[in-house]
What we know:
alpha/beta
Amino acid sequence: MIDADKVKRFWDARGQKLGEVAFESIANLEEDAALLALKVKLEQERVLPLLPLSPQASLLDLGAGVGQWSFRFAPLVRRVLAVEYSAPLAEIGRREAAQRGATNVEFVTSSAEAFTTEERFDIVFVSGLFVYLTDAQCERLMRNLPDLLAPGGTLLLRDGTSILPGRHEINHRFSERLKEYYSATYRTRGEYVEAFARAGFALQESGQMFEEGSPLNKYPETRLCYYVFRHARP
């Protein structure tokens, strides 16, 4: 089982990368400029059409990092609330919002699983989050998620997924690519679908973010996938 404290230290340290790597790379973890540009392009083409983005919509970005997705959504919706548990990353996001004049983007420093609010959002976007959560953290998050989404709203999960028969776990292993110790738990598609079903969500659509053969599919054990959910009950 991954160590939550070690994961948190990893993400806090990513804030020190500001100025060393591209803004998008800080939380995205892709530091090759050409691959980063390709990844951003392909992901936007895949994700944006799946969401009911409109000038009236409110959007919750859980696990927002420095706001790399929040700033893509901001021109297309009324409000974005970006929730990030790493204070250094959230602060980078706040400064970036000020520099961009993105007045409809608000950052809250909180773990995703502890975050609650009376506000209900038309769209909940959960990105690259579950792979860094323990099972206990996941269970707490799943208890809160249904109350964050407005009736008829859409939840999109974008997360690493094991394509093995079971989970693929990396427990505090040194990454030559990142030059840091890295931890993550890649759950299977079935685990994601079952967990969301237990929380009252119905799967609408899912798939891999990148086609097979893409240079962005770097590891044989995992793929970056998307899952679109809605409340199973109106």
